Amino acid sequence: MKILFWLVAWLGRPVGGIRPRRITHWLARKAYGTAKPVPDDFRLFRDCDGNQLRLHPHYFIDYQVIAFGVHDPKLRRFLKRVVKPGMVCLDVGANIGTVTTLLSKLVGASGRVFAFEPVPPLFGRLKENIALNNFGRVVSLHQLALSKETGLATMKTVQEDCDNQGMSSLQNTDHPHLTTSLKIQTATLDDFVKANHIDQIDLIKMDVQGAEPWILEGGVNSLRRLRPNLVLEVSPYDLRSFGKTSVDLLHSIEALGYECYQLAACGRVGKRILAGTIGSEFLADNLYCRPVGLPTHEQ
């Protein structure tokens, strides 16, 4: 089964992966789903933008990059349209750095990327992947979670051999895979911006398992003053752990002076989404939120 996975991965990689994608997902789970990754098992791969990443096919994000060259193709296409040299971007919930490395390449030497990842094993891999690509002068790495308060918090996370390492939550205590508790550092966006003397933010990407309302609450002043574009996930399951719904989240975003849009598969801005027209179970993998009255950078 391992040989078949690698055959499918390498045959499909030049054209964006074998279709349908579920074939590759099934093969990866069968071949490596029960594997216990150790450091010597990780290998270097290049994503479709030429960035080097140290990966293992046991992990969900890793095997997608190995087989398809990218973890989230829609988000990648969007970022390549809107992020320009000299911009300042935040990657909140950076995981192993698949988006951080792309942002770093797009903003170039004149730009800046701030990446946040509180989970120690993921932060270690993030740090290694940034070093592999010599992005240290562009990227500022922070082992903390943006939240509604600055201080310490308890986060529930998965074991290091769980295939989906991106499930950690500040609130979700019900998911059976979230078996480990750890103390982490938190900061509000407003406190972080003030402490680091940041006077420009062009884009914030969030992937924080339902903690989006807390980040907005802790960043009201910065969001209203600096007016960055936002790209975030809307997950009703994760939001419920924070006592919120998809409607609540969109109302909060609109109250800050933003209008929200779905992204098309090609990465272009699609249909506008209004809080008053969606249900509490509205789901979006990538929601683009643009400050009202400001033009998009999209090409």
Structural class: alpha/beta
The 3D shape can be described as globular
Quickly name the level 1 CATH class of the largest domain: Alpha Beta
Please report the total strand number as a whole number. 13
Which sequence of SSEs, written as H and E, runs from N to C? HHEEHHEHEHEEEEHEHHEHHEEE
CATH architecture call of the largest domain: 3-Layer(aba) Sandwich
CATH topology of the largest domain, by name, is Rossmann fold
Please work out how many helical segments DSSP would assign.
11
Roughly what is the average pLDDT, rounded to an integer?
A: 94
Assign a percent range to the helix content: 25-40%
Counting structural domains, the number is: 2
Within the largest sheet, what's the order of strands? 5-4-3-9-10-13-11-12
The biggest beta sheet reads: 8 strands, mixed
Distance, first to last CA: 43 Å
